[in-house]
Structures are given as C-alpha cells and as structure tokens.
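User: Good morning. I'm curious how xanthosine-5'-monophosphate would be positioned relative to this chain. Could you predict the structure with it bound?
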Amino acid sequence: MNSPQSQDPIVSEQTNISADPLQNERVLVLDFGSQFAQLIARRVRDQNVYCEIVRHDIPAESVIARKPAAMIFSGGPSSVYDQGAPKCDPKLFELGIPILGICYGMQLTAQSLGGAVQACPAREYGRARLSISNMEKLFAGFPSEIDVWMSHGDQVQKLPEGFETLAGTTTCPHAAVKHHALPIYGIQFHPEVSHTALGGTLIHNFLYNVVGCQGRWHLSNFADQTISQMRQRIGSDRVICGLSGGVDSSVTAALLYKAIGPQLTCILIDNGLLRKDEQSAVIREFTDHFQADLRVVDAGDRFMSALSGIRDPQEKRRRIGHAFIECFKEESLKINGAKYLAQGTLYPDVIESGAAPDGPAATIKLHHNVGGLPEQLGFDLVEPLRDLFKDEVRKLGLELGLPEHLVWRHPFPGPGLAVRCLGEVTRAKLDVLREADEILITEIRNANLYRETSQAFVVLLESQSVGVMGDSRTYENAVAVRCVNTDDFMTADWSRLPYDLLALVSTRIINEVRGVNRVCYDISSKPPATIEWE
Ligand code: XMP
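Assistant: Good morning! Here's the predicted structure, ligand included:
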C-alpha cells in the first residue's frame, strides 16, 4: 500500500499526481490490516476519484491537512475487542468528513460511538444474501435483495445511538447502517470484491450521492506521468527488464522503452519451469511487437539444482528469486553493468508478500520478485506497475498499443511450474505438468472459453491412487485442474466450465499423459484458498 512514509520514487508518484488541482478530490482509505485495502482504493479510482491509502492510526491533524472529501475504513483481521487491536484517532468521527466503514471498519466505528460488537454465532465466509430495507442514497437503484461477499467472525450486535439499519442477512441483522444526521455509514460485507453484486455501484453511490464527488481522476494520466518520472530517475543509466511474456512484464517493458529507448535490455530467463514451447512463443511475440534489445538465457540447470531436494513452498520461491537475481547480475555484466532492474510487480504481489511499507497485512506468499529477493540485490528496482491491479495493467497495455491477445494472456507466475508441482520439483514431474497443461489450455481455447476464464492450469499432486487401465491395476498420480474467474486476482471464484469440457480434458489427460490416472477439479474460491496451490 502507499504509505505516506514511502521513499520509493515510483511508489510515491501518486502523491505528485494528487498535486494537480484537477485531482484534488481525494479519498483516504485507512488500512486496518486488510488484504483488500488497495482493492478499495482501486474501486474508488474506478469511479474517477483519486484515492490514497494511509495507516489506520493517522492523526486527525494529518487528515485535516490532506483535505479529504471522504474516508473509508478498511476491514482487518483483528477483533475490535482484542487487546492491541488497531484503532483510529477518535477525533476523526468529529470532523464532519463522510466515513464509510467496511467490515472491521464498521465494527470499529460502531464500538467507538457507543455500540456493541461481538463474535457472531455463525462465522460467515463467502456469499450471503442481503435484504435491503432502505434504498436511500447508499443503495439508490438497488433491487431489494443482492448477493454480497462476507468474510467475518464478529458483527455489530447493538447499534450506537443515532444509527439505523439499512440492510441485513439472515445471520447478520445490521449488515448496513447509517447515522440519521451525520454522513457516517457502515457495511459488514465487502463491496470492493468483484463477487459482491453491484459493489462498484455501492461505492459510486457513496462517492457521488453521499460525498458529492465530481469524478476528476483518470488512468490515462498514469502512463505519461510514469514515463516522465522514470526518464527523470534513470537519466543515462542502463536498465535490464525481466521479461516473462506475460502482460505485466510486457507493459513494464513498453513503458520503459517509451521512457529510455535503447538504454533498455530485456532478458528472458528460461528457468526450465516454463510451459510447453513457451520460450519460442515469447521470442516470437517480442520480435513482432517490440524494438528493444532481447537476450535469452537458458538457465534450466541452475534452477533445477537450486530446487533439488526442496519441498517447502516458501523456500522454493526464495531460491527461485535468488537464482533469477544471479542470472540478471551475470547478464548485466555482459552489457557493461545495468544500474536498474525493472520488474512487472503488481500491487497484489506486494500486498500478499507482506512487503508494503508499514502495512499491517499478513504475508500470504513470498512472491518471488518481492519477498523472494536477496537483501543485497545489486540493482535499484524499477517497478512502475507496483500500485496497479491486473485489470488496470491490461487497460494500460491496450493504451500503449499492445495487441489484445498478449494483453489478455492468462497470468503465469514467475516461479512457474515449480509452484504447481507439489513437493520436490523434478524434470520428470515438470514434463507431466507441461503435457497436462497443454491439453487443458488447448481444450479451453477450442471451446472458446479462454478469454472468459481468467486463469487455468494443472497442479501435479503428491498423492497416488489406484486405477484400472486396460484390465490392469495402476497406482499413479492425481492432478488437479484449477480454473478461476476474477478481475483483479485478489479474489476469485472457480470457473463453472461445462461438464462436457471437463470430461474431455479429464479423458485426454488420463489417456495421453503417462503417469496420471486421476483428474480432480478444484472448486475452492479465493479467499479462503489462493489461486496457485503453493
Ligand atoms: P495467488 O496464488 O496468490 O495468485 O492467489 C494470484 C495471482 O498471482 C500469480 N502469482 C504470481 N505471479 N510471481 C508472479 O509473477 C509469483 O511468485 C506469483 N505467485 C502467484 C498467480 O498465478 C495468480 O495469477
């Protein structure tokens, strides 16, 4: 998240953007440790309103100095009644600035103003049906019932004086509340995740109907601002950019090429963990659409020996991150030393690695190009997309002229097939995965469902099971097929693919991929599962 204390020139660029008088309509998101704080900010920016994330304990004086149009209190993992639970400056409630409390933010607001919060009899995670009883400003234009996404163990039991209920679910009577005179609202569900129906409309209603925003911020400013800031920062130094062929690194390279042209060298490291025929596909794509210098490094042996005997997912990620940096250092020497290393790191990578400066969010995974990097990097990092979400990056890619099929490629993680090969990674297991993955993607494309599915892949499990093939007993591996639908990869639901397609994929994998005799379909949403298995 964008802490106000951040020193990173790329991260702090939004502070400069907000200096533009056209964008002085600012919303502050107070982060109480939510995985979704940046997602809230992103939903606000979707409504063309500039938004910054700040720490939950920001003093009221600093809030006043920023002149926000509104504040949104995020969710968080704590219980408001826990000792040491994050609080806000109580004076914030007296400023007359509109407040929307979400989940923990609502509970804290209720508790601070004299209400009561308790553990709910039944914890609620996932979808819930919300009945709306008051359609005024916040729910203007809503039907009387919608599906919302809940993720909580506590709820407001007694409203503070002056509050009324706007909506509830069968297990959460006060799921949306407001003060009858002050512009203070609270909602127990998460409007920021794409699985809450009309979540964007609710945020729009808060910003435009309650706060009275005009909508003055636009993503198109971002490319120009970023290019000129990078040009200024890099000067005449050289930059190497790790290229994976995915949209993030491609957009990073495109921005950099516009900023510094021939000072940029792109490097594709084939770590032996890529999908089938991926190296040649990336080279073809690159030469068709980019003019920058490209070097390809065959580093499969190095990565395989780094991974030898390693089973722990975090350790795998750490070793892969280190091996990447070693490769980049060697390549940098060949071009007389690059000062900067550019990466297509996105905000979810930062937040889920627990790497956001001063951010209280928990570490979910060591993203290889954030938490998995060695301390002594030997490069300064350039990460122009560090504040953006995948869907924003895609929009930016199209604005920069990248072709649709590249912009809409499914993401592929930097640690590659290593995190889809549970337990120790071996060449034999990788071969199984490559074949199975190729079948899945081919059949999804044949069914014209590639674009509708956000990400699809196969995971090689560590469990064997008994089967019967051609009258003989088999005892072979199971694979899991994971297909998800999501906009931003922060939350996701499993794809409801047609049974016939799943049947075809299963039959083909079992018949054609040696060593696999069972195919399972992963029907977990994120949260509580993540998209990748490791
Ligand atoms: P998770 O598994 O955290 O994944 O729900 C969210 C998205 O991020 C991708 N992912 C990664 N991408 N390096 C990457 O470049 C990584 O270390 C990494 N880990 C996860 C994942 O494929 C999904 O699209």
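The longest strand covers residues 116-132. Residues 135 and 141 are 7 Å apart (CA to CA).
Let me know if you'd like a different ligand tried.
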